Amino acid sequence: MSRRDAAALLGCIATLSAVIVAIRLAFPSHPDYMGHFSAGAGATMAFLVTVVAFTQWTPHLVAGLLLLCVGMGVGTEATIFRLAAFDRMDFALQSAGAALAAMVLLTMGTPLRNALAFLAGMGFLFLGFILVFGVAGA
Amino acid sequence: MRRALVCLPLGLVVAFAALTMWETLARSTIPLSIDGQVTEVAVRAEDGDQRVWFIEVDDEFVRMDEEIGARLVAGDVVRKDAWSTTLVVNGNDVPLKLSRDARGALWFAPLLVILGAALTWLQLRGSPDTQSRT
């Protein structure tokens, strides 16, 4: 993996982590917001690199998949993440996470970078579920 | 066209940052225009001990911060102009203020856009491939 690829992936992970901390500071009474952001970012990152691994990377493909993920976010927010009603804050944060996560695929990258991005995505997705359902179930 | 597609994620970040700011502001009711009678006050549990307030005014539900929702009961007559910081409830003025969430969104949303722009720049810096290769 080139230094450029490593910087791109680490930059994305660092940005997502920084936003999670910022959400904690901006909305301290809503710890689940961190989970929605993290889950949206992680699911999108893992999904995008998986599809790209089996197809040919193009900006059109990444843009289309990102829009699909945002659309799927509407569905998850209306179903499994729906705790009281459709929450536009949850939707906005998970979709912002999806958009930031998609930036790791603004360039094609190597298979190794994409494999590591998949693992990072699964990590953020797992963290998101813990933060949403862990908090809700506490 | 290709450049526009590359900038799509940043455009979405800007849009969703704006939505976070609007949603937290709207829950304070400050940007909203309200004129009618409260027909239902619904309180739902969310995320452990958090409670969400939905106030129905003339058949339209509005999600409000607890500081406002807890003051209202069915039958109240409420009125306010858009962007006014006073809610009139049964003829009595109730001052409105930005919630902690709304104040947080005022710095969080711009920060989100800045981080998105920085990440876009980092990803595209010196990039040989905004075009596909096999």
Structure, described:
The complex is a heterodimer of chains A (138) and B (134). Chain A is an all-alpha fold. Chain A is 79% helix and 0% strand. The longest helix of chain A has 27 residues, at 111-137. Chain B is α+β, with helices and mostly antiparallel strands and 134 residues long. Chain B has helices at residues 2-6, 8-27, 66-69, 100-124; strands spanning 34-46, 50-57, 60-64, 77-80, 86-89, 92-95. In chain B, strands 3-2-1-4-5-6 form a six-stranded antiparallel β-sheet. Chain B starts with a helix and ends in a 10-residue tail after the last helix. Classes of the chains: A mainly alpha (138), B alpha+beta (134). The interface between A and B is large, with 51 and 46 residues.
Question: Topology, pairings included?
Answer:
The complex is a heterodimer of chains A (138) and B (134).
Chain A: H1 3-26, H2 32-54, H3 59-78, H4 88-102, H5 111-137
Helix pairs in contact in A: 1-2, 1-5, 2-3, 2-4, 2-5, 3-4
Chain B: H1 2-6, H2 8-27, E1 34-46, E2 50-57, E3 60-64, H3 66-69, E4 77-80, E5 86-89, E6 92-95, H4 100-124
Antiparallel strand pairs in B: 1-2, 1-4, 2-3, 4-5, 5-6
Helix pairs in contact in B: 2-4
Shape of chain A: globular
Largest sheet of chain A: none
Count of separate DSSP helical elements of chain B: 4
What is the radius of gyration of chain A computed over CA atoms, rounded to a whole number of angstroms? 15 Å
> Judging from the principal axes of the Cα atoms, what is the shape of chain B?
elongated
Largest two-chain interface:
A-B, 51 and 46 residues
C-alpha termini separation of chain A: 42 Å
Strand tally of chain A: 0
> How many helices of chain A does DSSP assign?
5
Mean pLDDT of chain A: 88
Mean pLDDT of chain B: 86
The largest beta-sheet of chain B arranges its strands as 3-2-1-4-5-6
Major β-sheet annotation of chain B: 6 strands, antiparallel
What distance separates the N and C termini of chain B? Answer: 21 Å
State the total count of DSSP E strands of chain B.
Answer: 6
**What level of helicity do the residues of chain B show?**
40-55%
Oligomer: heterodimer
Low-confidence stretches of chain B: 130-134
